[in-house]
Amino acid sequence: DTGVSQDPRHKITKRGQNVTFRCDPISEHNRLYWYRQTLGQGPEFLTYFQNEAQLEKSRLLSDRFSAERPKGSFSTLEIQRTEQGDSAMYLCASSDWTSGLSSYNEQFFGPGTRLTVL
Amino acid sequence: QKEVEQNSGPLSVPEGAIASLNCTYSDRGSQSFFWYRQYSGKSPELIMSIYSNGDKEDGRFTAQLNKASQYVSLLIRDSQPSDSATYLCAVNRDGATNKLIFGTGTLLAVQP
Q1: Is A103 close to B46, i.e. CB distance below 8 A?
Q2: In Å, how far are A80, A109, B57, B92 from A54, measured between CA atoms?
Q3: Does the beta-carbon distance from B101 to A45 stay under 8 Å?
Q4: A4 partner at 20 to 30 Å CA-CA among A24, A48, A51, B108?
Q5: Hey, which residues does B77 pair with through a beta bridge?
Q6: What distance in Å separates residue A80's CA from the closest CA in chain B?
């Protein structure tokens, strides 16, 4: 399977615990995006990387959230001191971004990690 | 006003009919537009992208874009029960980041 993969697929944790999610993008894709989706809503942008550089973070991303893409391949998203409001589907997407054609880059999503904070 | 608006539905159509899904966006500078299909409990799956005014066809799917009216639509011909899902409209306003702004989705129900 050469698509985007995410691990774990489901995570149940208690309030106050730390959690970490992993995303492996499509191998030749240089851009990686994190989104969050709650029930009845569309995905909301959280942050994105071009290779290993984190280029933008949404205001939705509080200081309890941190993301890395250390070697420009896989990425991790960590949530510290989880709160019940963090319960959501965390989605990763990747794209093959090309300068000059940037508007046309399609993003492909992984299966998501569903987080439940008790 | 939401940046991307969709009717939440449900839109119910009989099997074999044409389903028409609509989306409006607020930022006139938006550059590219995408339709994703999302089955319940699953992640979004890209089905169409469109960048220029007019129609773009791919199999049973046709995307239509009218930038002057800030309107994007998706037509599904010969609708099948397997097309029953939520259809998300996504807009790229920023050619640098390419972050997508999503609508809340339209639930399509195809009745056998």
Answers
A1: no
A2: 19, 18, 35, 19
A3: yes
A4: B108
A5: none
A6: 24
